[in-house]
Amino acid sequence: MEKEAAIIGYAQTPYEADSNCSRELLVLQATRAALEAAGLKREDLDTIVTANNDYLDGRTISNMRLVEPAGSWRKNESKVEMDGAFALLYALTRILSGDHDIALVVAESQASVYGGILPGIMMLDPTFDRQRWLLNEVSGAALQASAYMDASGVSEEQIAGVAAKNLDNAAGNPLALRSLPGADAAKVMASRPLYSPIRDLMMAPLCDGACALVLASGKAAAKAEKPVWIKGVGFAHDSYLTERPLESMNSLKLAAGSCYAQAGIEDAASQIDLAEVHERFAHEELMSYEALGFCGPLQGGAFFDSGATRMDGKLPVNASGGAMGANVDCGAGLARVIEAAMQVRGDAGKHQAKGVKTALAHGQTGICAQENIVYVLGGE
Question: What are the structural domains of the chain?
């Protein structure tokens, strides 16, 4: 996908436990800032895709009141009821169709006004799992973590170390909700237990916020300052969590393979300079190392212990703090794309890694990372 579409502007609101404002205002703030960053006006937009969810917004047709703040009045507009990384895919297909040159992608959510993990229960099998009230997003992740630990030999302390790394990185990100400068595994292990082996600081915190990204066709992006090109994208959907092995992220592996084929990536560990991974739980980052080809199967713990994924390592992962720093439902994956683009441009501020020319961004949806999407981004 050589110079067919590029990111030319982006913005994120601060991620907060309670933004004390409407989601419409959050979307307006992100949209205005993204357009300003791209040097564009609302009139320049051809198509707008929002990422929001009826269950989370508490209303059907949940994008109905986002038309005006997203700049989509009398414009081509649609929504995706998934993470914004998938909304970006929708916008990308519109750009590649040749029917549009400039697209805006906006993702938002307000955890302060809905029941935490309760909406996720609606994803469960309605005839058995949903009625028993045993499974939810956190208990499902605990089963996933246990399966992975049994298969790989990874310890709780190693998983806690991943969370500590990201929370320490988040200290350099002024938009992050949660950060712990100098955090270590012991501090994470001391946090409140949820479902064993998941502890509070091993789970990404739900929060309020919005993010927006402007995508342009190759022709339109050629006029932009420092475009970040989408070199490849891949996505895959796995089966229901009780019908698949939980010790590996197979759909992420498939998504990465498709993306790498487009981007010309033959050895991810040496060709990718930085990765922003959507780790809703700390153990999923270890599993993603393997699925993304950064290390061999069941070697995620050893790869982490090598220091490769730290800020000063050969392949920093989640320099922004990742979802451990801020996790907006429907927006955390799009935020990973934005953060990866910031790294390629070299404007990530205090959490900028050195020498980033090619970056990977990952988004997910569904219990136990059922569906995954991967982007490879690069500069000029």
Answer: 5-115+206-221 (3.40.47.10)
Map tokens 């939980």 to a residue. 246
Q: Which long-range contacts (CB under 8 A, 24 or more apart) does 308-317 make?
A: 309/165, 309/275, 309/285, 310/165, 311/169, 311/351, 311/353, 314/269, 315/269, 315/272, 315/273, 315/274, 315/275, 316/274, 316/275, 316/353, 317/274, 317/275, 317/276, 317/277, 317/285, 317/289
**One-letter identity of residue 303:** F
Distances (CA, A) of 218 to 101, 133, 199, 222, 289: 8, 49, 45, 6, 31
CA 334 to CA 323: how far, in whole Å? 11
Name the burial class of residue 73, with classes exposed (0-12), middle (13-18) and buried (19+) by CB atoms within 10 angstroms of its CB: exposed
> How many residues can be counted in the chain?
380
Cα(181)–Cα(179) distance, integer angstroms: 6
Bridge partner residues of 49 (DSSP): 78, 105
List pLDDT tens digits, range 146-188: 999 999 999 999 999 999 999 999 999 999 999 999 999 999 9
What is the distance, to the nearest Å, from the Cα of residue 359 to the centroid of all Cα atoms in its chain? 13
User: Measured between alpha carbons, how far is 206 from 300 in angstroms, rounded to an integer?
Assistant: 26
